[in-house]
Amino acid sequence: MGIINEDSFIETVHMKGLQISLIASGDGTEVIYHKLEPDARWGLEPLEGGETLEYLHLLSGKLLLKDSNGEKTFRAGDSFQRCPVTEHHIFQSIGQSEFLYVTSNPVFHYYSRVTNELRDLVISIEEKDGYTSDHCDRITKMSMLMADALDLNSRQILKLNLAAFLHDIGKVKVPVEILQKPGKLTSDEWELMKQHSTFGREILQETGLPSLIEAGEVVEQHHERYDGTGYPKGLKGDEIAIEAAIISVVDSFDAMTTDRVYQKGRSVLEAIDELRKNRGTMYNPDIVDTFFKIKDKLVKM
């Protein structure tokens, strides 16, 4: 384990797979302790106009770094430094890991407040929409497996990771009687339901955080269809971000195989057959093909 005494924490934020604790803050610099559960991801992104120092020191475990230089494994005692950050760097925890993060861009309190608010919204939406509380966690894990299989770059991985977990956050603005209606929605109800993807983009844009603003663009597109018949903008083919195309496939698979308030889930084989039938119409064919290649991993989520 690490060398940090928890009595020294000023404030702690807990999320699925991640604990973040502020240890010290002053003169525009923050020292933040991070604990990542196995396979959890954490990223650094460039800040517009920022000449900030970003320093990471690994206390225990291993971290796999993915960026434009490829992949590199960090072990306890290793450090990583950038001043400024000029690209997206994604760290994946191999087993449980702990590290200190030092930044001259103090963001902890704002970040923790926004993160807690979004997390609470996601949980409330999952309950309103008839899902179990780990629906968004499953979507995120499946999306990350797809990202690895498709060899996405670090910026795409960060965007996908956030958008996958927050894809349905806009449903907070949709009445529960519509979300849980057992029968067919009226035309007016369906028009309101379709707005949830745009609501999601707007909610994330209002945070002012660059990574969430980018994720919001993906969130807005996750119900677009490859043939152009989706919503809200009727995008088609390569007009749809690859991150949104991934979420569309894995979210559909999870929705089809999950028991909800108003319907019983289908079998895995039935869901896979449905994806196959809609390959090239509803879903990007390359994404569906990749899903099938790694389906044995995905169905275990």
UniProtKB/TrEMBL annotation:
Annotated keywords: Hydrolase
Name of protein: HD-GYP domain-containing protein
Parts of the chain that traverse the membrane: none
E.C. numbers: 3.1.4.-
Protein's organism: Cytobacillus pseudoceanisediminis
A Pfam family: HD_5
Tree of life domain: Bacteria
InterPro entries: HD/PDEase_dom (IPR003607), HD_GYP_dom (IPR037522), HDIG_dom (IPR006675)
Domain HD-GYP: from-to ranges: 110-301
GO molecular function term, any single one: hydrolase activity
Broad enzyme group: hydrolase
